[in-house]
Amino acid sequence: MVTSPVAGAESRPSWRRFVRIQGLSGSGLGQLIGGVVYAGATVTAVGIGLPIFLPQYAALITSAGVPLLVVLFAILTAFVVRSMRRGVLLQSWSESRGMRYVHQRRSRHRSAWPGSPFPHSGGYFVRHHVIGTDIETGRFRSLPDDSGYHSAGLLNSFTFVRFALPTSVPHLVVTSNRSSALSAAGLAISGGRVLRGSLEFDSSFTLHCPADYERDALYIFTPDLLALMLDAAPGCDLELIDDMAYLYVSREPKLWVGPVADELLAVVALLRRKLDRQTRRYTDVRLTEKIVSPGAPRVAVEGLRLANRRSMRSRAIAAALALPGMLLAASLVAQALGWISI
């Protein structure tokens, strides 16, 4: 992992450098300027235009409406400035560690990460994206496709940390039973096998693996590895897919605070060293020349990928959002049939 500081002025927080590297749109400065112009035009239109057309409400508009708009736009502006300030700090930290920083990026293409929560259709939005030679982290949020559907069933954003493994391994996912980041995002792992009653930390974690890979999963996720997760990354989920590991965090770490970012690097270093020892000598004896072609991922054949579905949390929220519309439709139908009178 690259953690050696880069000497020079580039490692110091600089708003000018932040805007120059990220651009007007990527840095948020374009949205800030546009928002200020829009706010000024709106306040002017409400404060001057409305009293002309509604003279009877002129006093109310001037004394209440305009101040409320000013306060609202001031709050929104403060949020944008706060986001930019965090980007300035995080970019400075990333550069001091030899990594590249992308403040925010929106894409309508398929995501570049093969992990379970990353959608294969629609689009995605990533912010606070730090990219190193052997580590990557960002705050991920899926975007709906043209029909409004999130392919992964995601509702909330999550933070991911990706780092490399020394070899390809089966598709394995360990979820926290108490505060799973994937469940909070609206996703549940399905397919394959769920190992319960086989783990020393069965009350804390659930281990998911493809069928017939139970022994392999227990070979990699030993009690000391799970104990390390419990101590160093409580409430996080861990996914191993091909030669990559993904650590999922529900609440965004304050990486713009230097010590917090350094602590995250230290946690990843601990997990990486342990996973390196657990997986370096791993070999999947089931793979044959028919399954694996030159250049193909070691474990990417059909049937060895775990699937996903909407979590109970996601279904409950979707049902709660749909309930008012369903009740309204039912009442209109009942009134039309004469069953009720409103």
Describe, in plain words, how this protein is organized in 3D:
The chain is of the alpha+beta class. The chain folds into two domains: 84 residues; 213 residues, no CATH class. It has eight helices and nine strands. The strands form two sheets. Strands 1, 2, 3, 4, 6, 7 and 8 form a seven-stranded antiparallel sheet that branches. The protein is globular. It starts with 14 loop residues before the first helix and ends in a 6-residue tail after the last helix. The N terminus is likely disordered.
What number of domains?
A: 2
Q: Quaternary arrangement of the chains shown?
A: single chain
Distance between the termini: 67 Å
Question: Which segments are poorly predicted (pLDDT under 50) over 5 or more consecutive residues?
Answer: 1-10, 288-303
* Backbone structural class: alpha+beta
Number of helices: 8
Mean pLDDT: 80
Index terms:
single chain; 342 residues; alpha+beta; 2 domains; 7-stranded antiparallel beta sheet; two-stranded antiparallel sheet; 8 helices; globular
Summarize the structure.
This protein has 342 residues and is α+β, with helices and mostly antiparallel strands. The protein has helices spanning 15-27, 29-53, 58-96, 181-185, 214-220, 223-232, 258-279, 312-336; strands at residues 100-107, 123-131, 135-143, 158-176, 187-190, 193-195, 205-209, 237-249, 307-310.
Fold topology:
Blueprint (H helix, E strand, L loop, with lengths): L14 H13 L1 H25 L4 H39 L3 E8 L15 E9 L3 E9 L14 E19 L4 H5 L1 E4 L2 E3 L9 E5 L4 H7 L2 H10 L4 E13 L8 H22 L27 E4 L1 H25 L6
Antiparallel strand pairs: 1-2, 2-3, 3-4, 4-7, 4-8, 5-9, 6-7
